[in-house]
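Researcher: I'd like a structural prediction for the single chain below. Treat it as a standalone chain; there are no partners to consider.
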Amino acid sequence: MIDVKTTLTYSFLRIFFRGIKSFLITLGNVGKDFTKVLYYILRLRINIKATIEQSSRFAVDSLPITLTIVGMTSVIIAMQIAPELAKQGAEGYIGMLSSLVMVRELACIMSGFAIISMIGSSFASELASMAVGEQINAMRVLKVNPIEYLVVPRFLAGVIMMPFVFILSSFVGIVCAGIVSHITAGLSILNYVSSLWQGLYIRDIFIAMLKAAFFGGTISLISCSCGYSTRGGAKEVGIATTRAVVWSFLAIAIWDYIFAAAFYL
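Model: Treating it as a single chain, here is the predicted structure.
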């Protein structure tokens, strides 16, 4: 008689339902923490100094790697599309396509991925270490609310600073694409600049900035929630950090789909 627990199907279903359980637990914790964060923000119980510190960390500290990733991605894309468009006599569309791809999708998504990997994982590991080290319980004993002191500044930092990161990333990406187009396709800088606004509108920039704010707040909230709710020891700190990164990636992909369907479908 075959033991069901040794079959591949059982192992697959166990992993699948474990993932569903982890997702539902994370979603519940994030929703609960978001209501508390919103409560403190609406009551203006905001630590300005901590918010400024976290904003500097969220944007300034992550900027070099973010701009590098966005710049290299735009270079790779321009290397492939610029020569092909030039062969078809469509040089006038290179700038337009570069700006559309960069502003609507690439800059925001790649910036989000970079910040998740660098800042989101750091938020999660810090709060998880504090949770398992009983530092959060010590804050409660001292009548300091952990959500107000730890999560609210990080959440506001993400919402406020992510649009600025997006603007800088878009600028760097468009400039890099223009330089590569000039080198690989012989497109003049003047023609490239003049074609940037053929398909890009101010509306696109504002939509992308709003999306970036949602990305930043979501990354901070999920990372902090996964770290804040950690229980156990050092192993659980690593698990919480991994969970924060994975669900943050999934969350911004879902947000990206929602914005695309809402504004461009």
